[in-house]
Each structure stands twice: as C-alpha cells, then as structure tokens.
C-alpha cells in the first residue's frame, strides 16, 4: 500500500478507515464499492456538464446532492465538500460559479479515481 501514501499533512482522496467502518476492511468489498463509485463519478460529473448547458437547477441539485452523499459514504471527503459547495449554486444565474464547481468536482473526482486505480492495482 506504499504507493497510496500521501505527503505529510495531505489527506488521501479516500479515507480507507472510514470505508472500513462499513466493510470491515475487507479488500474485496472495498474494491467492489470503489469500482462502483469510480463509475458513478464519471457518469455524474458528465451529467453536470449537460445540466449546466440546459440550465436545469433542479437536476443540478439532485446530482450534486447524490455526489455529496456517495462521496462522503465512501470516505472521499474532499469530493463530498466540493459537491456540498456546488449544491446551492444555480446554473441558471451562477454561470461562472457553476462552471467553477464542475471544474472542482472534476479535479476532486480525478484524484479519487487515481487513488481507486492504485488501490485496485495493489
């Protein structure tokens, strides 16, 4: 697991001890959950682009709320916080804020997906 260690003071994209509370630390179960979350990141962040173009505030809130809950559930706290910050943004009136929120979610999602790839390869 050395490949997944973070620089001192830097939080890992996923808190595996948090996830272990639900999985008992069982690697196969962790892997299954993380694979599902990996796919969900790609799908839902992609949907946000469509929702942003459509300026659909209701769907925006639904997706960001779902990302927030899923991220926090697996221990991807920075991504959960990015989704929590994005949730109240109105894509109709907050164009730049909404675009920034999507960019931040993409960045956090990318970090999480790299972490998941390393975890699965270990």
Structure characterization notes:
The structure is a single chain. This protein has 122 residues and is mainly α. The chain is built from 5 helices and no strands. Helix 2 packs antiparallel against helix 5 (95-121). The radius of gyration is 15 Å and the shape is elongated. Mean pLDDT is 92; it is low at 1-5.
Helix content: over 70%
- How confident is the prediction overall: mean pLDDT? 92
Beta-strand content bin: under 5%
Number of helices: 5
* Low-confidence residue ranges: 1-5
Find the structural class using helix and strand composition.
Answer: mainly alpha
**Count of extended strands:** 0
Radius of gyration: 15 Å
Global outline: elongated
Strand-and-helix sequence, N→C? HHHHH
In oligomeric terms, what are we looking at? single chain
N- and C-termini, Cα separation: 6 Å
Report the biggest beta sheet as strand number plus sense, adding barrel if it closes: none
Write the layout of secondary structure elements.
Blueprint: H1 16-23, H2 27-54, H3 57-74, H4 77-86, H5 95-121
Helix pairs in contact: 2-3, 2-5, 3-4, 4-5
Tell me briefly what this model is.
By secondary structure, the protein is mainly α.
Attribute tags:
mainly alpha
């Amino acid at each position: 697991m050395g490949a997944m260690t973070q620089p001192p003071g830097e939080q890992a994209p996923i808190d595996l001890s948090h996830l272990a509370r639900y999985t008992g630390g069982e690697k196969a179960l962790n892997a299954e959950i993380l694979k599902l979350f990996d796919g969900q990141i790609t799908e839902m962040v992609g949907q946000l682009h469509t929702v942003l173009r459509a300026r659909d505030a209701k769907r925006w809130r639904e997706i960001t709320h779902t990302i927030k809950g899923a991220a926090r559930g697996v221990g991807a706290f920075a991504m959960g916080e990015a989704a929590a910050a994005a949730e109240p943004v109105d894509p109709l009136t907050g164009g730049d804020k909404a675009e920034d929120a999507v960019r931040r979610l993409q960045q956090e999602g990318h970090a999480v997906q790299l972490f998941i790839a390393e975890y699965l390869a270990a």
